[in-house]
Amino acid sequence: MTSHAAADFHRRDGVTWAAFGALFAFGFMNAVLGPALPYIRAVEHISYLVGALHQASYAIGGGLAGLLAARQRRPISRATVIAGGLSGAALAGLAVGYGATPAITIAAAMLMSLLGTSALIRVWAVLADVHGTRRVVAMTEGEVSVSLAGILTPLLIGALAATALSWRFAFVLGAGS
After folding, report:
1. Rounded to the nearest 5°, which phi and psi values hold at 46?
2. CA dist 60 → 38, 51, 90, 117 (Å)
3. What is the pTM of this model?
4. In three state form, how does the secondary structure of 28-60 look?
5. Quick one: pLDDT at residue 11?
6. What phi, psi does 71 have (nearest 5°)?
7. What is the per-residue pLDDT for 63?
8. DSSP conformation class of 101
9. How far apart are alpha carbons 20 and 61 in whole angstroms?
């Protein structure tokens, strides 16, 4: 192998694999609300309109994360935002799954998106920085991680709904990821 070919070789180091794991967690969080909403509506005895407020709240949280990231004057370290964002989003996800009232679950949906999207923005930046000119490869592989979680999450919720663990346990598994 020539030195030029070795320079073009894409390496997946520990940081890259950790980023892929964070992207998988975000993919779960991004996909969980839709398939969980019928169950949330049934448990909370709410209409389609109030159910839709969960999704609107989630969208607002993601938009706020983008605005806050663009306006940040004194940057918090990426590692802090990623770890704190994903941990907070996991806790908010538990509130979405186990909250007893629309006020709790709607607010938790916004918080889950705000914190998770804040982490997501930094994860993409880390991948871009770590992989430099090969960032397209790393980011494409990261998208596979997000997509895989998006495919598996509804299947997980449906499978758990048919067990004694219930659909809510998906939020526990998501928080653990």
Report:
1. -115, 160
2. 21, 15, 18, 11
3. 0.89
4. HHHHHHHHHHHHHHHHHCCCHHHHHHHHHHHHH
5. 77
6. -100, 0
7. 97
8. S
9. 22
- Using CA atoms, how far apart are residues 172 and 169, in angstroms rounded to an integer? 5
In Å, how far are 14, 18, 85, 124, 150 from 88, measured between CA atoms? Answer: 23, 18, 5, 19, 20
pLDDT digits (tens, 9 = 90+) for 34-52: 999 999 999 999 999 999 9
Q: What is the residue-wise DSSP string for 57-99?
A: HHHHHHHHHHHHHHH-SSPPPHHHHHHHHHHHHHHHHHHHHH-
CA 67, distance to chain mean position in Å, is 18
Task: Tell me the pLDDT tens digit for each residue of 125-175.
Answer: 999 999 988 899 999 999 999 999 999 999 999 999 999 999 999 999 999
- Res 6 pLDDT > 80: no
CB 172 within 8 Å of CB 94: yes
User: What token pair was written down for 107?
Assistant: 């607010």
Cα gap 151→116, rounded to integer Å: 18
Please give the structure tokens belonging to residue 33: 């609300």
